[in-house]
Amino acid sequence: MNVIQVENVKKSFDNNIVLSDISFSVGKGDVVCLIGPSGSGKSTMLRCINLLEDIDEGKITVLGHDIGTIKDINSYRKDVGMVFQQFNLFSNMNVLDNCMLAQTKVLRRNRQQAEEKAREMLRKVGMLDFIHAYPSTLSGGQKQRVAIARSLCMDPQILLFDEPTSALDPEMVSEVLNVMKDLARDDMTMIVVTHEMGFAREVADKVLFMDDGVIVEEGTPSEMFNNPRNERTRQFLSRIIRQ
Amino acid sequence: MSLSKCLEILLKYSSSFLLGVRTTLIVSITGTIIGFLIGLCVGGFRAVRPDKTADNTVRFIKHISDILAKIYIEVFRGTPMMVQAVFIYYLIYTNVFKWDKMFAAIFIISINTGAYMSEIVRSGIQAVDAGQTEAARSLGLSSSQTMRFIVLPQAIRNAFPAIGNELIVNIKDSSVLMIISITELMFQSNSIAGTTYRFSETYFVTAMIYLLLTSITSLVLHLIEKRLNNTRTSFPQSDTNFYSMSIASKGEDR
Fold this sequence. Notes:
heterodimer, A: alpha/beta, B: MetI-like fold
Protein backbone atom coordinates (compact mmCIF):
# COMPACT_ATOMS: atom_id res chain seq x y z
CA MET A 1 0.00 0.00 0.00
CA ASN A 2 1.27 3.44 -0.89
CA VAL A 3 1.33 5.90 2.00
CA ILE A 4 2.17 8.80 -0.26
CA GLN A 5 0.86 9.16 -3.77
CA VAL A 6 1.84 12.24 -5.76
CA GLU A 7 -0.06 12.67 -9.03
CA ASN A 8 0.66 15.24 -11.74
CA VAL A 9 1.61 17.97 -9.29
CA LYS A 10 2.37 21.38 -10.68
CA LYS A 11 3.61 24.41 -8.78
CA SER A 12 5.01 27.77 -9.73
CA PHE A 13 6.12 30.87 -7.88
CA ASP A 14 4.87 33.80 -9.94
CA ASN A 15 6.04 32.96 -13.47
CA ASN A 16 8.76 30.61 -12.33
CA ILE A 17 7.70 27.00 -12.81
CA VAL A 18 9.18 24.96 -9.98
CA LEU A 19 7.33 21.67 -10.36
CA SER A 20 5.93 20.65 -13.71
CA ASP A 21 3.98 17.43 -13.63
CA ILE A 22 5.51 15.39 -10.83
CA SER A 23 4.20 11.91 -10.03
CA PHE A 24 5.63 9.30 -7.71
CA SER A 25 4.61 7.06 -4.87
CA VAL A 26 6.09 5.97 -1.58
CA GLY A 27 5.23 2.63 -0.02
CA LYS A 28 4.94 1.95 3.69
CA GLY A 29 8.34 1.66 5.29
CA ASP A 30 10.11 2.85 2.17
CA VAL A 31 13.02 5.23 2.08
CA VAL A 32 12.87 7.43 -1.00
CA CYS A 33 15.78 9.72 -1.79
CA LEU A 34 15.24 12.80 -3.92
CA ILE A 35 18.44 13.86 -5.62
CA GLY A 36 19.20 16.47 -8.21
CA PRO A 37 20.86 19.83 -8.77
CA SER A 38 19.99 22.95 -6.78
CA GLY A 39 16.82 24.64 -7.90
CA SER A 40 15.37 21.48 -9.38
CA GLY A 41 12.35 21.65 -7.03
CA LYS A 42 13.25 18.90 -4.56
CA SER A 43 12.69 20.95 -1.41
CA THR A 44 9.54 22.51 -2.80
CA MET A 45 8.14 19.03 -3.46
CA LEU A 46 8.83 18.09 0.15
CA ARG A 47 7.29 21.29 1.48
CA CYS A 48 4.15 20.67 -0.56
CA ILE A 49 3.71 17.29 1.11
CA ASN A 50 3.81 18.98 4.52
CA LEU A 51 1.48 21.76 3.33
CA LEU A 52 4.11 24.42 3.93
CA GLU A 53 3.43 25.25 0.28
CA ASP A 54 0.25 24.86 -1.74
CA ILE A 55 0.23 23.07 -5.06
CA ASP A 56 -1.34 24.67 -8.14
CA GLU A 57 -2.50 21.50 -9.85
CA GLY A 58 -2.54 17.77 -9.28
CA LYS A 59 -3.20 15.70 -6.21
CA ILE A 60 -1.20 14.49 -3.24
CA THR A 61 -2.66 11.61 -1.25
CA VAL A 62 -1.09 10.87 2.12
CA LEU A 63 -2.25 8.01 4.36
CA GLY A 64 -5.40 7.75 2.28
CA HIS A 65 -6.39 11.41 2.43
CA ASP A 66 -6.25 13.95 -0.37
CA ILE A 67 -4.27 16.62 1.48
CA GLY A 68 -5.70 19.41 -0.65
CA THR A 69 -9.04 18.91 1.07
CA ILE A 70 -7.78 18.54 4.65
CA LYS A 71 -9.52 20.88 7.07
CA ASP A 72 -7.47 20.23 10.19
CA ILE A 73 -3.96 20.93 8.97
CA ASN A 74 -2.49 20.71 12.47
CA SER A 75 -3.68 17.20 13.10
CA TYR A 76 -2.40 16.15 9.67
CA ARG A 77 1.02 17.67 10.31
CA LYS A 78 1.57 15.80 13.55
CA ASP A 79 1.60 12.58 11.52
CA VAL A 80 4.14 13.91 9.04
CA GLY A 81 7.38 14.99 10.68
CA MET A 82 9.78 17.36 8.99
CA VAL A 83 13.50 17.83 9.52
CA PHE A 84 15.01 21.01 8.13
CA GLN A 85 18.37 21.90 6.70
CA GLN A 86 18.72 24.71 9.25
CA PHE A 87 17.57 22.51 12.17
CA ASN A 88 15.14 25.18 13.41
CA LEU A 89 15.30 24.15 17.03
CA PHE A 90 13.33 26.57 19.21
CA SER A 91 16.08 28.83 20.46
CA ASN A 92 14.13 30.00 23.51
CA MET A 93 13.91 26.49 24.94
CA ASN A 94 16.31 23.81 26.07
CA VAL A 95 16.57 20.43 24.36
CA LEU A 96 14.01 18.73 26.58
CA ASP A 97 11.40 21.49 26.16
CA ASN A 98 12.01 21.47 22.41
CA CYS A 99 10.97 17.84 22.42
CA MET A 100 8.07 18.26 24.85
CA LEU A 101 6.22 21.36 23.64
CA ALA A 102 4.28 19.89 20.73
CA GLN A 103 3.63 16.67 22.66
CA THR A 104 1.85 18.54 25.43
CA LYS A 105 0.12 21.13 23.23
CA VAL A 106 -0.83 19.06 20.19
CA LEU A 107 -1.03 15.47 21.43
CA ARG A 108 -2.20 16.62 24.88
CA ARG A 109 0.13 14.26 26.68
CA ASN A 110 0.79 15.15 30.28
CA ARG A 111 4.23 16.39 31.25
CA GLN A 112 5.36 13.07 32.63
CA GLN A 113 4.40 11.09 29.53
CA ALA A 114 5.91 13.77 27.32
CA GLU A 115 9.17 13.77 29.24
CA GLU A 116 9.41 9.99 29.12
CA LYS A 117 8.87 10.02 25.38
CA ALA A 118 11.37 12.85 24.92
CA ARG A 119 14.01 11.01 26.92
CA GLU A 120 13.41 7.82 24.97
CA MET A 121 13.83 9.60 21.63
CA LEU A 122 16.82 11.64 22.78
CA ARG A 123 18.47 8.41 23.91
CA LYS A 124 17.79 6.98 20.48
CA VAL A 125 19.67 9.83 18.79
CA GLY A 126 22.38 9.86 21.44
CA MET A 127 21.51 13.26 22.90
CA LEU A 128 20.23 12.25 26.32
CA ASP A 129 23.19 13.90 28.04
CA PHE A 130 22.21 17.29 26.64
CA ILE A 131 18.60 17.62 27.75
CA HIS A 132 19.19 20.87 29.64
CA ALA A 133 21.37 22.48 26.98
CA TYR A 134 20.13 25.38 24.88
CA PRO A 135 20.37 25.00 21.11
CA SER A 136 22.93 27.80 20.77
CA THR A 137 25.44 25.73 22.74
CA LEU A 138 25.16 22.63 20.52
CA SER A 139 27.09 21.75 17.39
CA GLY A 140 25.29 21.43 14.08
CA GLY A 141 25.22 17.65 14.17
CA GLN A 142 23.88 17.67 17.73
CA LYS A 143 21.18 20.16 16.80
CA GLN A 144 20.08 18.07 13.88
CA ARG A 145 19.90 14.94 16.02
CA VAL A 146 17.74 16.82 18.53
CA ALA A 147 15.55 18.03 15.67
CA ILE A 148 15.07 14.43 14.56
CA ALA A 149 14.21 13.39 18.11
CA ARG A 150 11.73 16.27 18.34
CA SER A 151 9.95 14.99 15.23
CA LEU A 152 10.01 11.40 16.48
CA CYS A 153 8.34 12.43 19.75
CA MET A 154 5.13 13.01 17.80
CA ASP A 155 5.06 9.34 16.66
CA PRO A 156 4.88 10.40 13.02
CA GLN A 157 3.99 7.92 10.32
CA ILE A 158 6.18 9.65 7.79
CA LEU A 159 9.37 11.68 8.13
CA LEU A 160 10.44 14.25 5.56
CA PHE A 161 14.09 15.32 5.51
CA ASP A 162 15.00 18.51 3.69
CA GLU A 163 18.75 18.31 3.10
CA PRO A 164 19.40 17.35 6.73
CA THR A 165 23.18 17.31 6.40
CA SER A 166 23.82 20.18 4.00
CA ALA A 167 24.50 22.74 6.72
CA LEU A 168 26.87 20.49 8.66
CA ASP A 169 30.61 20.27 8.99
CA PRO A 170 31.85 17.22 7.08
CA GLU A 171 32.78 15.36 10.27
CA MET A 172 29.28 15.80 11.68
CA VAL A 173 27.48 14.43 8.66
CA SER A 174 27.93 10.79 9.61
CA GLU A 175 26.47 11.15 13.12
CA VAL A 176 23.23 12.40 11.57
CA LEU A 177 23.22 9.87 8.75
CA ASN A 178 23.70 7.05 11.26
CA VAL A 179 20.58 8.14 13.11
CA MET A 180 18.70 8.19 9.83
CA LYS A 181 19.96 4.71 8.95
CA ASP A 182 18.65 3.46 12.27
CA LEU A 183 15.25 4.91 11.46
CA ALA A 184 15.26 3.27 8.05
CA ARG A 185 16.08 -0.04 9.72
CA ASP A 186 13.08 0.48 12.02
CA ASP A 187 10.91 0.73 8.89
CA MET A 188 10.11 4.41 9.16
CA THR A 189 8.66 5.80 5.94
CA MET A 190 11.02 8.54 4.85
CA ILE A 191 11.50 10.96 1.98
CA VAL A 192 14.99 12.38 2.01
CA VAL A 193 16.18 15.27 -0.10
CA THR A 194 19.92 14.84 -0.06
CA HIS A 195 23.26 15.31 -1.75
CA GLU A 196 24.71 12.36 0.17
CA MET A 197 24.95 9.78 -2.58
CA GLY A 198 26.54 7.24 -0.25
CA PHE A 199 23.49 7.37 1.98
CA ALA A 200 21.11 7.09 -0.96
CA ARG A 201 22.98 4.12 -2.32
CA GLU A 202 23.07 2.32 0.99
CA VAL A 203 19.67 3.05 2.47
CA ALA A 204 17.19 4.05 -0.22
CA ASP A 205 14.58 1.69 -1.61
CA LYS A 206 14.01 4.11 -4.45
CA VAL A 207 15.94 7.07 -5.81
CA LEU A 208 14.30 9.87 -7.77
CA PHE A 209 16.45 12.18 -9.85
CA MET A 210 14.83 15.57 -10.34
CA ASP A 211 15.87 18.32 -12.68
CA ASP A 212 14.01 21.46 -13.76
CA GLY A 213 10.84 20.50 -11.97
CA VAL A 214 10.45 17.04 -13.45
CA ILE A 215 11.48 13.58 -12.35
CA VAL A 216 14.01 12.65 -14.99
CA GLU A 217 14.66 9.15 -13.77
CA GLU A 218 13.58 6.87 -10.99
CA GLY A 219 14.81 3.50 -9.91
CA THR A 220 16.52 1.41 -7.28
CA PRO A 221 19.88 2.73 -6.07
CA SER A 222 21.80 0.09 -7.99
CA GLU A 223 19.99 0.88 -11.25
CA MET A 224 20.44 4.57 -10.68
CA PHE A 225 24.06 4.67 -9.64
CA ASN A 226 25.49 1.78 -11.64
CA ASN A 227 23.50 2.06 -14.78
CA PRO A 228 21.72 5.40 -15.23
CA ARG A 229 19.66 5.44 -18.39
CA ASN A 230 19.27 9.16 -18.86
CA GLU A 231 22.11 11.34 -20.13
CA ARG A 232 21.26 14.13 -17.67
CA THR A 233 21.38 11.72 -14.73
CA ARG A 234 24.73 10.43 -15.88
CA GLN A 235 26.17 13.94 -16.04
CA PHE A 236 24.86 14.85 -12.61
CA LEU A 237 26.06 11.67 -10.94
CA SER A 238 29.50 11.78 -12.48
CA ARG A 239 29.93 15.36 -11.31
CA ILE A 240 28.68 14.67 -7.79
CA ILE A 241 30.56 11.43 -7.29
CA ARG A 242 33.83 12.85 -8.55
CA GLN A 243 33.66 15.37 -5.76
CA MET B 1 24.29 80.54 38.81
CA SER B 2 25.97 79.13 41.89
CA LEU B 3 26.19 75.51 42.86
CA SER B 4 25.69 76.28 46.53
CA LYS B 5 22.39 77.95 45.64
CA CYS B 6 21.43 74.83 43.71
CA LEU B 7 22.12 72.68 46.73
CA GLU B 8 20.16 75.06 48.92
CA ILE B 9 17.13 74.85 46.63
CA LEU B 10 17.41 71.06 46.44
CA LEU B 11 17.46 70.75 50.21
CA LYS B 12 14.82 73.34 50.91
CA TYR B 13 12.35 72.00 48.36
CA SER B 14 13.35 68.35 48.59
CA SER B 15 9.85 67.19 49.46
CA SER B 16 8.43 68.97 46.39
CA PHE B 17 11.11 67.48 44.18
CA LEU B 18 10.47 64.05 45.69
CA LEU B 19 6.76 64.30 44.97
CA GLY B 20 7.68 65.24 41.40
CA VAL B 21 10.01 62.25 41.09
CA ARG B 22 7.35 59.98 42.49
CA THR B 23 4.70 61.16 40.05
CA THR B 24 7.12 61.06 37.12
CA LEU B 25 8.09 57.49 37.94
CA ILE B 26 4.52 56.33 38.45
CA VAL B 27 3.36 57.88 35.19
CA SER B 28 6.30 56.73 33.09
CA ILE B 29 6.58 53.19 34.46
CA THR B 30 2.83 52.45 34.33
CA GLY B 31 2.64 54.15 30.94
CA THR B 32 5.46 52.00 29.59
CA ILE B 33 3.93 48.79 30.94
CA ILE B 34 0.46 49.50 29.60
CA GLY B 35 1.97 50.80 26.37
CA PHE B 36 3.89 47.55 26.06
CA LEU B 37 0.69 45.55 26.51
CA ILE B 38 -1.00 47.65 23.84
CA GLY B 39 2.02 47.11 21.60
CA LEU B 40 1.87 43.38 22.20
CA CYS B 41 -1.76 43.24 21.07
CA VAL B 42 -1.54 45.65 18.16
CA GLY B 43 1.94 44.64 16.97
CA GLY B 44 1.24 40.95 17.43
CA PHE B 45 -2.01 41.25 15.55
CA ARG B 46 -0.36 43.13 12.75
CA ALA B 47 2.38 40.54 12.35
CA VAL B 48 0.16 37.48 11.97
CA ARG B 49 -1.18 36.45 8.62
CA PRO B 50 -4.48 34.64 8.23
CA ASP B 51 -4.16 30.89 7.78
CA LYS B 52 -4.42 29.42 4.33
CA THR B 53 -7.71 27.86 5.34
CA ALA B 54 -9.15 31.16 6.64
CA ASP B 55 -12.35 32.27 4.94
CA ASN B 56 -13.08 35.67 3.48
CA THR B 57 -14.74 37.10 6.59
CA VAL B 58 -11.58 36.50 8.59
CA ARG B 59 -9.49 38.09 5.86
CA PHE B 60 -11.81 41.08 5.69
CA ILE B 61 -11.75 41.65 9.47
CA LYS B 62 -7.98 41.34 9.45
CA HIS B 63 -7.71 43.84 6.61
CA ILE B 64 -9.93 46.42 8.33
CA SER B 65 -8.16 46.11 11.67
CA ASP B 66 -4.80 46.43 9.93
CA ILE B 67 -5.93 49.77 8.54
CA LEU B 68 -7.23 50.91 11.95
CA ALA B 69 -3.96 49.91 13.61
CA LYS B 70 -2.01 51.78 11.02
CA ILE B 71 -4.08 54.95 11.54
CA TYR B 72 -3.60 54.68 15.32
CA ILE B 73 0.16 54.33 14.96
CA GLU B 74 0.49 57.15 12.43
CA VAL B 75 -1.64 59.58 14.42
CA PHE B 76 0.08 59.02 17.76
CA ARG B 77 3.58 58.95 16.37
CA GLY B 78 2.91 61.91 14.13
CA THR B 79 1.61 64.41 16.68
CA PRO B 80 3.41 65.80 19.77
CA MET B 81 2.46 64.16 23.07
CA MET B 82 1.90 67.61 24.57
CA VAL B 83 -0.79 68.31 21.98
CA GLN B 84 -2.30 64.86 22.50
CA ALA B 85 -2.35 65.52 26.23
CA VAL B 86 -4.25 68.80 26.17
CA PHE B 87 -6.56 67.69 23.39
CA ILE B 88 -7.57 64.37 24.91
CA TYR B 89 -7.70 65.70 28.46
CA TYR B 90 -10.06 68.56 27.65
CA LEU B 91 -12.03 66.56 25.11
CA ILE B 92 -12.98 64.00 27.75
CA TYR B 93 -13.16 66.52 30.59
CA THR B 94 -15.67 68.80 28.90
CA ASN B 95 -17.65 66.24 26.92
CA VAL B 96 -17.64 62.98 28.83
CA PHE B 97 -16.75 63.14 32.49
CA LYS B 98 -14.53 65.10 34.84
CA TRP B 99 -11.70 62.66 34.99
CA ASP B 100 -8.82 62.51 37.37
CA LYS B 101 -5.69 64.25 36.03
CA MET B 102 -3.39 61.46 37.09
CA PHE B 103 -5.59 58.91 35.37
CA ALA B 104 -5.66 61.10 32.27
CA ALA B 105 -1.87 61.40 32.29
CA ILE B 106 -1.36 57.65 32.48
CA PHE B 107 -3.98 57.13 29.79
CA ILE B 108 -2.28 59.55 27.43
CA ILE B 109 1.26 58.31 27.95
CA SER B 110 0.06 54.71 27.58
CA ILE B 111 -1.61 55.12 24.21
CA ASN B 112 1.25 57.26 23.01
CA THR B 113 3.80 54.63 24.04
CA GLY B 114 1.54 51.91 22.66
CA ALA B 115 1.93 53.33 19.17
CA TYR B 116 5.71 53.10 19.34
CA MET B 117 5.62 49.73 21.07
CA SER B 118 3.37 48.30 18.35
CA GLU B 119 6.06 48.97 15.80
CA ILE B 120 8.79 47.64 18.10
CA VAL B 121 6.89 44.41 18.74
CA ARG B 122 5.97 44.00 15.09
CA SER B 123 9.54 44.38 13.89
CA GLY B 124 10.70 42.09 16.70
CA ILE B 125 8.30 39.41 15.54
CA GLN B 126 9.32 39.81 11.94
CA ALA B 127 12.98 39.49 12.91
CA VAL B 128 12.42 36.00 14.32
CA ASP B 129 13.72 33.45 11.83
CA ALA B 130 10.89 32.10 9.66
CA GLY B 131 12.28 28.60 10.19
CA GLN B 132 11.15 28.76 13.83
CA THR B 133 7.54 29.17 12.71
CA GLU B 134 7.84 26.51 10.04
CA ALA B 135 9.27 24.02 12.51
CA ALA B 136 6.50 24.74 15.02
CA ARG B 137 3.77 24.47 12.42
CA SER B 138 5.25 21.26 11.00
CA LEU B 139 4.90 19.73 14.47
CA GLY B 140 1.20 20.52 14.40
CA LEU B 141 1.17 23.62 16.62
CA SER B 142 -1.49 26.14 15.62
CA SER B 143 -0.55 29.65 14.58
CA SER B 144 -1.59 31.12 17.93
CA GLN B 145 0.35 28.47 19.87
CA THR B 146 3.36 29.15 17.68
CA MET B 147 3.02 32.86 18.38
CA ARG B 148 2.67 32.38 22.12
CA PHE B 149 5.32 29.77 22.83
CA ILE B 150 7.91 30.32 20.12
CA VAL B 151 7.72 33.65 18.33
CA LEU B 152 6.71 36.15 21.02
CA PRO B 153 9.26 35.04 23.64
CA GLN B 154 12.02 35.42 21.08
CA ALA B 155 10.62 38.65 19.66
CA ILE B 156 10.42 40.27 23.08
CA ARG B 157 13.94 39.25 23.94
CA ASN B 158 15.20 40.63 20.62
CA ALA B 159 13.26 43.84 21.11
CA PHE B 160 14.19 44.29 24.77
CA PRO B 161 16.71 47.11 24.20
CA ALA B 162 14.14 49.06 22.20
CA ILE B 163 11.45 48.40 24.81
CA GLY B 164 13.75 49.60 27.58
CA ASN B 165 14.57 52.64 25.55
CA GLU B 166 10.89 53.59 25.58
CA LEU B 167 10.98 53.66 29.40
CA ILE B 168 13.89 56.08 29.37
CA VAL B 169 12.18 58.24 26.79
CA ASN B 170 9.03 58.22 28.91
CA ILE B 171 10.84 59.32 32.06
CA LYS B 172 12.03 62.39 30.20
CA ASP B 173 9.02 63.04 28.00
CA SER B 174 6.46 62.71 30.76
CA SER B 175 7.63 66.28 31.51
CA VAL B 176 5.27 67.52 28.79
CA LEU B 177 2.36 66.23 30.88
CA MET B 178 2.84 69.27 33.13
CA ILE B 179 0.51 70.89 30.60
CA ILE B 180 -2.41 69.15 32.31
CA SER B 181 -0.86 70.10 35.67
CA ILE B 182 -0.12 66.78 37.27
CA THR B 183 2.54 66.98 39.96
CA GLU B 184 5.35 65.43 37.95
CA LEU B 185 8.92 66.66 38.20
CA MET B 186 8.74 69.42 35.60
CA PHE B 187 5.52 70.83 37.01
CA GLN B 188 7.00 70.83 40.49
CA SER B 189 10.16 72.53 39.21
CA ASN B 190 8.09 75.26 37.60
CA SER B 191 6.39 76.05 40.87
CA ILE B 192 9.68 76.00 42.78
CA ALA B 193 11.27 78.30 40.21
CA GLY B 194 8.25 80.54 40.41
CA THR B 195 8.58 80.83 44.17
CA THR B 196 12.34 81.29 44.38
CA TYR B 197 12.87 83.28 41.18
CA ARG B 198 16.05 81.21 40.83
CA PHE B 199 15.32 79.81 37.40
CA SER B 200 18.69 78.51 36.26
CA GLU B 201 19.50 76.94 39.64
CA THR B 202 16.13 75.23 39.93
CA TYR B 203 16.16 73.82 36.40
CA PHE B 204 19.76 72.73 36.85
CA VAL B 205 18.63 70.65 39.82
CA THR B 206 15.73 69.35 37.73
CA ALA B 207 18.06 68.34 34.91
CA MET B 208 20.35 66.53 37.35
CA ILE B 209 17.44 64.62 38.83
CA TYR B 210 16.26 63.54 35.37
CA LEU B 211 19.79 62.49 34.50
CA LEU B 212 20.04 60.46 37.71
CA LEU B 213 16.71 58.74 37.02
CA THR B 214 17.58 57.82 33.45
CA SER B 215 21.08 56.67 34.40
CA ILE B 216 19.78 54.33 37.07
CA THR B 217 17.13 53.05 34.68
CA SER B 218 19.57 52.33 31.90
CA LEU B 219 21.86 50.58 34.36
CA VAL B 220 19.01 48.33 35.52
CA LEU B 221 17.92 47.66 31.94
CA HIS B 222 21.46 46.78 31.02
CA LEU B 223 21.66 44.26 33.85
CA ILE B 224 18.38 42.64 32.82
CA GLU B 225 19.49 42.48 29.20
CA LYS B 226 22.75 40.84 30.18
CA ARG B 227 20.86 38.26 32.17
CA LEU B 228 18.54 37.50 29.27
CA ASN B 229 21.43 37.04 26.89
CA ASN B 230 23.47 34.93 29.26
CA THR B 231 21.10 32.01 29.37
CA ARG B 232 20.10 31.86 25.75
CA THR B 233 20.71 33.50 22.46
CA SER B 234 18.09 33.75 19.80
CA PHE B 235 20.11 34.34 16.70
CA PRO B 236 19.26 32.11 13.76
CA GLN B 237 21.04 28.86 14.37
CA SER B 238 23.72 27.72 12.04
CA ASP B 239 26.70 25.50 12.17
CA THR B 240 29.55 27.01 14.12
CA ASN B 241 31.81 26.74 11.13
CA PHE B 242 31.01 29.64 8.85
CA TYR B 243 33.14 28.33 6.03
CA SER B 244 31.12 25.17 5.71
CA MET B 245 27.93 27.21 6.07
CA SER B 246 28.78 29.29 3.04
CA ILE B 247 29.40 26.19 0.97
CA ALA B 248 26.19 24.65 2.19
CA SER B 249 24.09 27.68 1.41
CA LYS B 250 25.42 27.78 -2.12
CA GLY B 251 23.93 24.36 -2.62
CA GLU B 252 20.71 25.44 -1.01
CA ASP B 253 17.55 24.39 -2.72
CA ARG B 254 14.25 26.10 -3.13
